[in-house]
Amino acid sequence: MNDVLLIALFAFLGATAAGLLGAVVLRLLRHRSLVVSFSVVAGVAVTAMLAGTLTVAWAMLLSSHDLYVITTVVAMAALVSLATAVLLGRWVAARSHELTLAARSFGDGGTFAAPAGQPTAELAELARELAATSARLDSSRERERALETSRRELVAWISHDLRTPLAGLRAMAEALEDGMAVDSGRYLRQIRTEVERMNVMVGDLFELSRIQAGSLTLSPARISLQDLVGDALAGADPLAREHGVRLVGDRIEEVPVEVDGKEMSRVLGNLLVNAIRRTPPDGAVAVAAHRSDGCVVLSVTDGCGGIPEEDLPRVFETGWRGSHARTPPAGAGLGLAIVRGIVEAHAGRAEVRNVRGGCRFSVTLPTA
């Protein structure tokens, strides 16, 4: 028993010396190719076995012939091990190079295509992660292109909507200055109307800029949904009377919500104004609210005749108005973008879908 322990001790000491030397070599060559690292590992394994064997053989005073046989056997094992390590290293290195080239292609704006047949589970997992990242980048690029399109449309609409009232203001100011205005009071009232229109437009731009910059500060408070909807309906009633549209709000459940009353009033106001302006005379705009899966769903249904299906995904984009404009003629396509921004700031979501005879805009908010 003592001999066995002694042999194990000598073998352990010899193998440990070889292992420590291999660790130093691996550290020095850690930035080199995988082929070199695999060769060092194989060499360390064989050297450790040889060192332990020679140490035990020296302690046991083996004959030179026996020592020669042992050394030859270990040397053959070393050659096979090194050849296997080099082949495996070159194989893994080649697959890694293919993966690098594939990653470079989608980094330059393309789409990542994983090379076929990854040699190791780690490289296969890396390829899957790169493919998922490529998909996310494609989605991000698509959103960026859509955002850039929205910005261009916004600039075009703003330029058009500002140029028209400014031209009218200049003409009326020149008429008043030259004394050519027959009814100066009417001119002054018209100037005030145009200024108010531009003030609303600038206010919408400022509100949207705060939302997009993430600087919209909310002051949430517990509010009754009936009170919130009732105030919004009262505010929109004069416009509805002017357009001959009926407001219907008799399907409001008594549900408390924790929201910023001012901002949510703006959301309802924008939705109601859009609905009223797009509903023909003698039509109706209905407001409803109910619980659904732990949330509150607030909806505004109009009689606009519907929005083309291909345009529905773009309704809430900044600056979009489309052929069936959902914003007032004096607006710049910002009303619904503001609605979505404020609702999302409340951890909710805004949606739209076509219903019979019109559209239904739904706002989903968490309950208080």
Annotate the secondary structure layout:
Elements: H1 2-28, H2 34-59, H3 64-107, H4 121-178, H5 184-212, E1 221-224, H6 225-243, E2 246-252, E3 256-259, H7 261-278, E4 284-292, E5 295-301, H8 335-345, E6 349-355, E7 358-366
Helix pairs in contact: 1-2, 2-3, 3-4, 4-5, 5-8, 6-7, 7-8
Describe the structure.
This protein has 368 residues and is an alpha+beta fold. It folds into 3 domains: 1-110; 152-213, Signal transduction histidine kinase, dimerisation/phosphotransfer (DHp) domain (Helix Hairpins); 221-366, Heat Shock Protein 90, CATH 3.30.565.10. The protein has 8 helices and 7 strands; from the N terminus they run H-H-H-H-H-E-H-E-E-H-E-E-H-E-E. The protein has helices at 2-28, 34-59, 64-107, 121-178, 184-212, 225-243, 261-278, 335-345, and strands spanning 221-224, 246-252, 256-259, 284-292, 295-301, 349-355, 358-366. It has a 5-stranded mixed β-sheet. Helix 7 (261-278) runs antiparallel to helix 8 (335-345). The radius of gyration is 38 Å and the shape is elongated. The relative contact order is 0.07. Residues 324-330 have low confidence and may be disordered.
Notable traits:
368 residues; elongated; Heat Shock Protein 90; alpha+beta; two-stranded antiparallel ribbon; single chain; five-stranded mixed beta sheet; Helix Hairpins
Record field, number of beta strands:
7
Q: Which segments are poorly predicted (pLDDT under 50) over 5 or more consecutive residues?
A: 324-330
Structural class by helix and strand composition:
alpha+beta
Average of pLDDT: 77
State the helical fraction. Answer: 55-70%
The termini sit apart by 77 Å
* CATH hierarchy, class of the largest domain: Alpha Beta
Find the CATH topology of the largest domain: Heat Shock Protein 90
Strand order of the largest sheet: 2-4-5-7-6
Q: What is the 3D form? A: elongated
Q: How large a portion of the residues is in β-strands, by DSSP E?
A: 5-15%
CATH homologous superfamily name of the largest domain?
Histidine kinase-like ATPase, C-terminal domain
The biggest sheet, with number of strands, parallel, antiparallel or mixed sense and barrel status, is: 5 strands, mixed
> Which architecture of the largest domain does the CATH hierarchy give at level 2?
2-Layer Sandwich
Following the backbone from N to C, one meets helices and strands in this order, namely HHHHHEHEEHEEHEE
Number of helices: 8
Radius of gyration: 38 Å
Catalytic activity: ATP + protein L-histidine = ADP + protein N-phospho-L-histidine
GO molecular function: phosphorelay sensor kinase activity
Domain Histidine kinase: 157-368
Transmembrane segments: 6-29, 36-61, 67-88
